[in-house]
């Protein structure tokens, strides 16, 4: 969620809407504060462990998270009209960098880039972790332009608030981590939804101390080819907006 | 253009979201994983922290009783603190202050075999 808010701020900044950038990053700070007080770190939370998590939420923290979230929701909703109905913003985003649904599937795009073209593909609906117990449906927008991709991310950040609410209210008590022993043997493929889209893990092990093979395909790697269809024929000033609309993370891709 | 105006006007009357850092520092939350410190008195230089560290920023030399940590590689995940058998590694609540040059934290402990009474901590 903080990643989506970061992106919404950067996207507003890419067409020169600096005050919107400030508003979104102000909201993001609340999410980072929740991260810091519950996990111990702001961005690299380091709370996942093999077999579970390293820290539990106490009831006081749960109440605090819910109250902070309702405030965050209110703050995000006030920004909906200026971001999507403003004349200048529409002029810079509507019809820019169009990616049709067929082309999006053909190029293998993932995440909000694909959902912005009207295809409801979300790895969370596979039901890994606790997502099978939560009620949600993928957010889609039909047009496949920068405006649609922005709208998808905006609605997804609201969807995340709903998901966290559901998860916190239905949080069971008990052990937070399962014990494991021995070394892994065999291979596994895992598909997980990240803010930028589907991330693909492949791990192969032979029961040794070290893994035999590990491959991670990050969402940006899958989304970069889509720029080839988005960019031709666009004005040079629209290039930053279009490139940012796939939310590129170069450090993720360069591995 | 006028859709943003209510927000801007509201910002003029609401309190500031920023602080005058570094003159004004926010109180840290409980259980925050901040600066990593090693107590040379307690440390037995076993090297478990170096083996467990995911970013491989800790180097331990058992023979010469030295413990080094490259703070710029550290993720502050706290795995070393959890795995320390002597509880000599601790994390403070405050984060490290920004510095101008790369520094490596170097701790020299007591070399047990030769019994040299050299117990100093230097950065």
Write up this protein.
The complex is a heterodimer of chains A (255) and B (123). By secondary structure, chain A is mainly alpha-helical. Helix content of chain A is 47%, strand content 11%. Chain A has twelve helices and five strands. In chain A, β3 (185-194) and β4 form a beta hairpin. The mean pLDDT of chain A is 92. By secondary structure, chain B is of the alpha+beta class. In chain B, 15% of the residues lie in helices and 19% in strands. In chain B, the strands form two sheets. In chain B, strands 2-3-5-6 form a four-stranded antiparallel beta sheet. In chain B, strands 1-4 form a two-stranded antiparallel ribbon. Chain B has helices at 5-13, 48-52, 79-83, and strands at residues 36-38, 58-61, 66-70, 89-91, 104-108, 120-122. At the A-B interface, α2 of A face α1 of B.
């Amino acid at each position: 969620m903080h990643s989506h808010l970061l992106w919404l701020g950067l996207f507003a900044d890419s067409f020169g809407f600096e005050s919107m950038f400030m508003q979104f990053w102000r909201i993001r700070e609340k999410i980072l504060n929740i991260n810091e007080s519950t996990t111990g770190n702001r961005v690299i939370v380091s709370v996942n462990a093999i077999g579970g998590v390293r820290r539990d939420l106490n009831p006081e923290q749960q109440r605090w998270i819910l109250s902070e979230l309702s405030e965050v929701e209110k703050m995000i909703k006030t920004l909906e009209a200026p971001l999507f109905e403003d004349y200048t913003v529409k002029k810079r985003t509507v019809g820019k960098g169009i990616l049709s649904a067929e082309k999006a599937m053909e190029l293998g795009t993932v995440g909000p880039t694909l959902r912005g073209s009207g295809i409801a593909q979300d790895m969370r609906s596979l039901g890994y972790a606790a997502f099978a117990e939560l009620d949600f449906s993928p957010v889609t927008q039909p047009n496949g332009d920068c405006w649609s991709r922005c709208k998808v991310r905006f609605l997804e950040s609201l969807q995340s608030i709903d998901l966290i609410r559901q998860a916190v209210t239905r949080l069971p008590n008990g052990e937070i981590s399962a014990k494991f022993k021995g070394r892994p043997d065999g291979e596994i493929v895992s598909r997980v939804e990240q803010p930028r889209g589907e991330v693909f893990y492949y791990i192969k092990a032979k029961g040794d101390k070290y893994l035999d093979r590990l491959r991670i395909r990050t969402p940006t790697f899958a989304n970069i080819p889509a720029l080839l269809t988005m960019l031709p024929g666009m004005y040079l000033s629209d290039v930053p907006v279009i490139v940012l609309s796939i939310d590129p993370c170069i450090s993720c891709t360069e591995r | 253009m006028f859709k943003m105006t209510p927000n801007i006007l509201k910002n003029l009357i609401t309190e500031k979201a920023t602080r005058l850092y570094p003159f004004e520092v926010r109180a840290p939350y409980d259980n925050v994983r901040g600066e990593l410190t090693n107590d040379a008195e307690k440390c037995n230089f076993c090297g478990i922290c170096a083996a467990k560290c995911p970013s491989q920023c800790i180097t331990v030399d058992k023979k010469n009783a030295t413990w080094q940590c490259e703070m710029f590689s550290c993720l502050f995940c706290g795995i070393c603190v959890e795995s320390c058998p002597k509880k000599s590694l601790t994390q403070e609540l405050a984060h490290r202050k920004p510095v101008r040059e790369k520094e490596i934290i170097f701790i020299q402990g007591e070399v047990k075999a030769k019994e040299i009474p050299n117990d100093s901590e230097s950065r």
